[in-house]
């Protein structure tokens, strides 16, 4: 690609490095890259390759907002970013993060958007019109007066995008923006971005680990190695068709449509035993008088692997929190191995169960990665040599050994997620609950993580797994429980779920790629 001869790049990095002061090695290492306006560029790379750090440097937030230093040059419109007056770049280069909550300052949607306009010194008389226009543009006008906390994940993501659009940016960076969205919201969000790009012709940088729904729209795919060196810079179609070996080497997930035979990857294991692990009877849960969970009943046996599916806001996380005893004020009953959950003390419960939170940060309590993994063992009075014997292999398996003395809060998104899973595997639990454990993970980690889960399933652990990834459900799960508006609307095998088109639509789910492919080839009943 020798585009540079034709156009002046919007961003130009020349041997650019970024060091967090707490780390000995560079998080971005002598990267040279040009990024152009009016293009959609996808940036991929293994977890920890420096993608989010790069996004924050391009937006001018780093190094100022963090203890870090840079080397080499990073030019925006031909001028060093540090030479622009404060705030100019933030306004011209907008970022939407994976977790939109981290971007909000106000309670109501309108106030949040007005706050953005206030910072731009827009007169009050113009605010209403601008807010109405942007909400119309993203299809959220009816939510102008809604409390942001009452919006679903997908809706919050759209409001985060609206805040960025109000700044009329020249460039937008989307850092894993769809990782928390249900399958339909994900598609709608991508379509919205593409429509906006066509209408305004602005440049967009998409950082993602799963690009199945993005790649047809992108002009360019850039792949970084672990050492943040460019390994590939191609049209996505060419990259996925011609360079699969390079992509696999760098742990990049190849969209299913480019794989020879995706159905051979199915690994559903039937390890269910006769021993009941958990029983839920007539569970109801209310939040501020509104019903979040309604009349939920099901049971799961040891060795069973069940996915919980449903649209953003359906009640999946609330259900998991009830099942693990974090939400206590429910009605109905939950029995763990025959005993009422509310009668079990926390220590017994934490010895036999594990819970991986949706936001990994919510479960970190120690100052180092090592201590975080060893925490449960110390609580159970393990000797130092026993702790080392168990902790080191776990850190190695989750590719965290090099980061073991770091503070967990300074890890990359994917590293945090891996740590949150590793902390639950210090023993073989009887019940493991995962709230979206694979989002934000590269292909290699997702595969390893799923294999570890299958291993535990084989040892008799009952697995409950909340996910928005239908391909994962199709590949690994033997049972799916679908929640819609707080009620169970399906409980059965994923294969029978894929045949219920209306139900999938109501719950805003999608068939996995394998099944869509079968349908395209007119195989009517999918097995
Ligand atoms: N503190 C709260 N006050 C009022 N409503 C709340 C509160 N917390 C959650 N809710 C509502 O409860 C419902 C269920 O939320 P929950 O987080 O369980 O959904 P979810 O299925 O896990 O969604 P997602 O897929 O987006 O993670 C949502 O409609 C949400 O708005
Ligand atoms: N605030 C911080 N302080 C110290 N080190 C950090 C900080 N944030 C990130 N790092 C380190 O910098 C490296 C790059 O992190 P970054 O978040 O940019 O990676 P990434 O490619 O976005 O990863 P992922 O795909 O897992 O989100 C990682 O090794 C990470 O541990």
Automatic annotation (TrEMBL):
Subcellular location: Cell membrane
Keyword Nucleotide-binding applies: yes
Major subcellular location class: membrane
Matching InterPro entries: AAA+_ATPase, ABC_transporter-like_ATP-bd, ABC_transporter-like_CS, ABC_transpr_CbiO/EcfA_su, ECF_ABC_transporter_ATP-bd, P-loop_NTPase
Transmembrane segments: none
Membrane topology reported for the UniProt record: Peripheral membrane protein
PROSITE patterns, alphabetized: ABC_TRANSPORTER_1 (PS00211), ABC_TRANSPORTER_2 (PS50893)
ABC transporter domain: residues covered: 11-252, 278-510
Swiss-Prot/TrEMBL keywords: ATP-binding, Cell membrane, Membrane, Nucleotide-binding, Translocase, Transport
GO molecular function, one term: ATP binding
Similarity comment text for this entry: Belongs to the ABC transporter superfamily.
Protein name (record): HMP/thiamine import ATP-binding protein YkoD
Organism this protein belongs to: Oceanobacillus kimchii
Taxonomic placement: Bacteria, Bacillati, Bacillota, Bacilli, Bacillales
Name of the gene this protein is made from: ykoD
């Amino acid at each position: 690609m020798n585009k540079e001869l034709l156009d002046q790049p919007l961003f130009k990095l020349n041997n650019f490095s970024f060091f967090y002061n707490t780390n000995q090695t560079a998080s971005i290492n002598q990267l040279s890259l040009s990024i152009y306006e009016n293009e959609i560029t996808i940036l991929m790379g293994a977890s920890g390759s420096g993608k989010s750090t790069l996004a924050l440097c391009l937006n001018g937030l780093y190094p100022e907002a963090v203890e870090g230093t840079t080397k080499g040059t990073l030019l925006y419109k031909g001028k060093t970013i540090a030479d622009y007056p404060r705030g100019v770049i933030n306004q011209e280069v907008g970022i939407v993060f994976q977790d939109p909550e981290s971007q909000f300052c106000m309670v109501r949607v309108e106030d949040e958007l007005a706050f953005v306009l206030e910072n731009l010194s827009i007169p009050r008389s113009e605010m209403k019109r601008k807010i109405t226009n942007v909400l119309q543009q993203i299809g959220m006008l009816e939510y102008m007066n809604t409390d942001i906390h009452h919006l679903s994940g997908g809706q919050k993501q759209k409001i985060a995008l609206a805040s960025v659009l109000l700044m009329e940016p020249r460039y937008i960076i989307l850092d894993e923006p769809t990782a928390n969205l249900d399958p339909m919201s994900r598609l709608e969000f991508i379509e919205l971005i593409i429509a906006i790009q066509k209408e305004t012709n602005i440049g967009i940088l998409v950082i993602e680990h799963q690009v199945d729904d993005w790649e047809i729209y992108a002009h360019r795919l850039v792949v970084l190695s672990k050492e943040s060196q460019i390994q590939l810079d191609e049209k996505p179609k060419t990259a996925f068709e011609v360079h699969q070996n390079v992509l696999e080497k760098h742990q990049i997930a190849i969209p299913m449509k480019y794989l020879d035979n995706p159905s051979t990857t199915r690994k559903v294991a039937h390890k269910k035993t006769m021993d009941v692990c958990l029983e839920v009877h007539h569970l109801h849960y209310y939040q501020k008088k509104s019903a979040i969970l309604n009349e939920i009943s099901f049971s799961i046996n040891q060795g069973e692997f069940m996915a919980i599916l449903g649209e953003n806001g359906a009640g999946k996380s609330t259900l998991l929190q009830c099942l693990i005893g974090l939400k206590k004020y429910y009605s109905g009953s939950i029995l763990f191995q025959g005993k009422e959950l509310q009668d079990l003390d926390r220590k017994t419960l934490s010895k036999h169960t594990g819970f991986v939170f949706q936001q990994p940060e919510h479960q970190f309590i120690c100052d180092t990665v090592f201590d975080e993994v060893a925490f449960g063992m110390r609580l159970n009075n393990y000797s130092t040599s026993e702790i080392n014997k168990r902790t080191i292999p776990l850190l190695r398996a989750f590719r965290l050994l090099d980061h073991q003395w770091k503070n967990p809060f300074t890890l990359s998104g994917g590293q945090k997620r891996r740590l949150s899973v590793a902390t639950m595997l210090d023993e073989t639990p009887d019940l493991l609950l995962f709230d979206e454990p694979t989002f934000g993970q590269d292909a290699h980690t997702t595969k390893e993580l799923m294999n570890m889960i299958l291993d535990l399933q084989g040892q008799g652990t009952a697995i409950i797994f909340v996910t928005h990834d239908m391909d994962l459900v199709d590949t690994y799960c033997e049972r799916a429980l679908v929640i819609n508006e707080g009620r169970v609307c399906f409980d059965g095998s994923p294969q029978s779920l894929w045949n219920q088109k209306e139900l999938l639509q109501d719950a805003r789910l999608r068939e996995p790629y394998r099944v869509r492919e079968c349908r395209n080839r007119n195989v009517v009943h999918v097995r």
